[in-house]
Amino acid sequence: MKVWTKRTWTGMENLPATGGAIIVCNHLSHFDPLVLAHFIFGAGRWPQFLGKASIWKVPGVGFLLDKVEQIPVERGSVEAVKSLDSLVNALRAGGIVVIYPEGTTTREPDLWPMRGKTGAARLALLTGAPVIPMALDGAQRVFDPRTKKFSVRPRIPVRVTAGKPVDLSRWQGEAPSRTVLEQMTEAIMLTVRDLLGELRGAPPPPLFQPGARRSAVTDTPDGGTE
Fold it and tell me: Residue 100's closest CA among 80, 78, 71?
């Protein structure tokens, strides 16, 4: 990574030195996890990413992912409850869990964040772990999901920043209703979006919602789905 990327890292002091924490970040390229992991590892913590459980079924890959303490996540099945238990256990053991609330790379044309899914909010409400917002930019220069172009040239500039924990105290002790989780998710994603705006030195647009006209999207909860 030191050869492949030219990194600019800020806000590393906002990652807790010990204890469990939930990292939330924008997702603009399939190269993001390597960039983000490099930053977190540089801060002296070991990142635990969520991955599709199907990846663990690839011969040899599942064994390796288990050895490096990554977390398989089942989707659309009763096994999803076990996945949540794995996340809770990782946090209570003092781990750093990384979640991309958007659930996939952004579909926003200029790679700004989309509205998020509520998993990170649910986990924060359940465990009380701090939610650390992060933003990154430049990974799309390695792999751009819009053009599918991949670059292996050295010293590609990437920027990563971490912010202070998102203030979710308003919802502390609340039941995880749909409204509560959506409000928490909105607060999380707006913080991530604003961090990305600081990195880019540009005013960010409203959170993107695929299928909606850009002018119709606002910064208020719209009933997004889990």
Answer: 71
